[in-house]
Amino acid sequence: MLKVGVIGAGHLGKIHLKLLNQSEKYELIGFFDSFEENGKKVEAEFGYKFFHSMDELMDAVDVVDIVTPTLSHYEVAVKAIEKGKHFFVEKPITNTLEEANSLIELSNAKGLKAQVGHVERFNPAFTSALPYIGEPLFIETHRLAEFNPRGTDVPVVLDLMIHDLDVILSIVKSEIKSIHSSGVSVISDTPDISNARIEFENGCVVNVSTSRMSMKNMRKMRVFQRDAYISIDFLEKKTEIIKMHKAPENPSEYAMIWQNDKGERKEIAFEHPEVLPNNAILDELESFADSIENDLPIKVSLEDGRNALKVALEIIAYFEKSQEVIQNQNIEKE
C-alpha cells in the first residue's frame, strides 16, 4: 500500500481524507492544513492525524494529495517534487500556464508521477459513452449550479467550465482554431455565467455554457457525429445513444423509420449503455495508485491539466478583451 498524506482539509479535502482512509490501495498517514484551528477540529472529529508541519507530513509519505486553494497548488507541488514525492493535485492544475509548464518540467526531471483531479473523466456516464464516441462534429454542454459562495473567488470558467473543457479536449483530437466567449457577473467580481464557442481545426464546433447562478443543477453533454447522437448526463449518471442505419425490408411495427426526400429509409435505434455506480473521486485516486505501482500511463496527466487551463484562460481573456472594447466604445460616445 502507498502511504499518502493530504494537504488541505477544507470541504473537498475532507472528502479525500474519508475516501483515502477507506481505500485498499492507500494507507492514510495524516493531513496538514495551514489553518491550525481547522486542522485540530478535523482531527478531533474524524480521527485523522493532523501534522503541524507540511514538511513533516511529506517526509512520512509516498504520495502527496494536494487539495488546497488553486493559488497554492504550485508552491505545494514544487515542495512535493523537491522531496521526490508523487503527487495528485486538484483542478485547475495551477493558477498560471507558466506554473503548469514548470510543474511538468520539474516532475519529468525527477521521474515522478502526477495526476490532476479532473473527476468527470471517471464519471460512469462518461466512461459508458466513450466506446461510442468517434469523431465529434458538434458538442454542446450545459453545466449549471445553484449558487454557493464557495468557489466565487475565481471565474466560473475556472470553477465549473474547466470540467467540460477537459472532457472535450480528451475526445476531440484536434488543435483549436478559434475561441469566442461572453460572460455576465451577477454577484461576484468575475463572470458567474459564461458561454464559449470553440472551433477546432478538424471542423468540430463546441458550445459550452456554464452558470453558478441557476435555479437547478444540471451537468449535460450532447455529442453529435456522423453515425450517432450521444447524450451524457453527468449528474443523473445516464447515457443514451441514438443511431441511424439503413432500414430493413420488413421493420417491426415498433421500429422508428425516417425517410428523406430521396426516398432513403433509415431506422432510428436507441441504446442505453449500462452505467455502473461508482465513486468517481475514489476511482481517480485509486487510478493514480495503479499508475504508480504498476508504472501505467496517467489517466489525467499534468499535460492534460495544463491544456484545460490554457483553454480556460483563453476564454477568460477573450471575454475581458471584448469588455474593454465595449467600455472604450461607451467612453467615445460620451
UniProtKB/TrEMBL annotation:
It holds the Pfam family GFO_IDH_MocA. Residues 2-118 form the Gfo/Idh/MocA-like oxidoreductase N-terminal domain. It comes from Faecalibacter macacae. Residues 155-224 form the GFO/IDH/MocA-like oxidoreductase domain. One of its GO terms (molecular function) is nucleotide binding. This is Gfo/Idh/MocA family oxidoreductase. It comes from the Bacteria.
